[in-house]
Amino acid sequence: MDRGRGTYCLEAVAKLLAVQTPSGEKELNMMSIYEPTRTLADFHIAGFSYHEGFNVFSELKVGTKIELRHEPGNPYDPEAIAIYYGENMIGYVPRDKNNEFYTYLYFGHGDLFETFISTVDDDAHPERRLRVVVRISDSRPKSRKMENCMMPDSE
User: Fold this and answer.
1) Which residues of the chain have pLDDT under 70?
2) Which domains does the chain have, with CATH numbers?
3) Spatial separation of the C-alpha atoms in residues 73 and 12, rounded to whole Å
4) Alpha-carbon gap, residue 66 to 84, rounded angstroms
């Protein structure tokens, strides 16, 4: 059997999860294997057709990083969260989702989020052309991250 990346990953995970028992032996703490999802929300961009989205649409691809910014002067919603691509405002987080991010952005914690385009559909209605995913940033040391691990292929 080929000792591929998956095997080494499992060995690395086992080392990370090993705990020392009172007698000095090492055993696996299986409860530590669970890792929650980093995805906080995904949604279509609200108001895309009313802002600068069409001007930069050809530049927006799956994986393109975008930014969430609180828009305190918004006359319709004081908790409005605008979505920017560079300096171009391309729309908003839908109102039913903006409260999830408002408090963090209000207090200057925008760096907690990784936001990017997850779907581009040229043929959809303008308000449904782009889908966004917001994930929480992973600030753990690289040695504690499991995101690059793959399970070994079954034979």
Assistant:
1) 1-34, 143-155
2) 5-35 (no CATH), 39-136 (3.30.70.2330)
3) 49
4) 6
* pLDDT attached to residue 29: 55
Q: Please, what sign has the CA dihedral across residues 92, 98, 103, 104?
A: negative
Torsion of CA 132, 137, 142, 147, to 10 degrees: -40
The predicted pLDDT at position 127 comes to 85
What gap in Å lies between CA 9 and CA 146, rounded to an integer?
A: 8
| Token pair recorded at residue 102 | 């408002």
pLDDT at 11: 59
b (16+ CB within 10 A) / e for 116-125: bbbeeeeeee
pLDDT in tens, 101-138: 999 999 999 999 999 999 999 899 888 989 999 999 98
Do 133 and 109 form a contact (C-beta atoms < 8 A)?
A: no
